[in-house]
Amino acid sequence: MGIDFEQLRKQMVEEQLVKRGIDDELVLEAFKKVKREKFLPENNKKYAYADGAQLIAAGQTISQPYIVAVMLEALEIEKTDSVLEIGTGSGYAAALLAEIAAEVYTIERIEELAVQAEELLKKLGYQNIKVKLGDGSLGWEEFAPYDSILVSAAAPYVPQKLIDQLSVGGKIVIPVGERNKVQRLKVITKKFNGKIKAKELEYVRFVPLIGKDSWR
Ligand code: SAH
Fold first, then answer.
1. DSSP β-bridge partners for residue 146
2. Catalytic site residues (predicted)?
């Protein structure tokens, strides 16, 4: 018998997201729509709705659904927004973002992942996602400024270029901390006077952001 992914997805949204306090309707709708199993390698599809991160290619991971939901909720994305994601990985978070925002730009440093994610997202019909192979610690100047920036890898500090490429009133969500250890999710808001406001959320564990303005 095949796995009833539809049922598992509904359950994941209820048990892992709603029951833990995620209540942003746009975020919940996105999680109800995007089929996480599509973003996992064949041998891991059965864990698509398990409550944790899973291995994808190149030793990288697709994040735990709940943590992605916390990050998306914290960004307070609106339908007309243009969003930048650093760390495309499987493309799952990019697909969720594309369900909510108008335009999504996502950067990945590992070619194999960038190519796979771009093909998959195209196959799934997303026309509002652009994938680029490159170093996201430097942002993506071409389409800046962004209303929201989601950093899907852990950094030692918030890279300055990301702050520069953020709209006034916009937010960055980023795990900041030690490499291969625990980090803390930070929400950075760029205020109208140009100053930065920072708030801290949960403790998390992400793969490292490797780049010119991060770990080498
Ligand atoms: N959002 C992804 C999870 C990504 S895991 C998903 O939904 O599947 C973090 C990813 O960040 C990895 O694929 C890693 O290769 C990538 N990464 C690390 N440093 C990077 C950098 N400087 N620029 C772009 N991507 C980077």
1. 166
2. 63
Residue with tokens 């190519």: 115
Q: Positive or negative, the Cα torsion across 161, 39, 181, 16?
A: positive
**Residue 61: CB within 6 Å of ligand 1?**
yes
Please give the number of the atom of ligand 1 that sits closest to the Cα of 96: 7
Could you identify the residue written with the tokens 């018998």?
A: 1
Cα–Cα distances (Å) from 48 to 18, 27, 158, in that order, read 18, 18, 30
What does the pLDDT look like over 96-119, one tens digit per residue?
A: 999 999 999 999 999 999 999 999
What is the Cβ-side half-sphere exposure of residue 98, based on CA atoms within 13 angstroms? Answer: 21
Q: Six-digit token pair at 80?
A: 């007309």
Place of tokens 């899907």: 152
H-type helices in 86-131, by residue range?
Answer: 92-100, 111-123
**pTM of the model as a whole:** 0.98
Q: How far is the CA of 152 from the centre of ligand 1 (A)?
A: 6
* Radius of gyration of the CA atoms of the chain, in A: 16
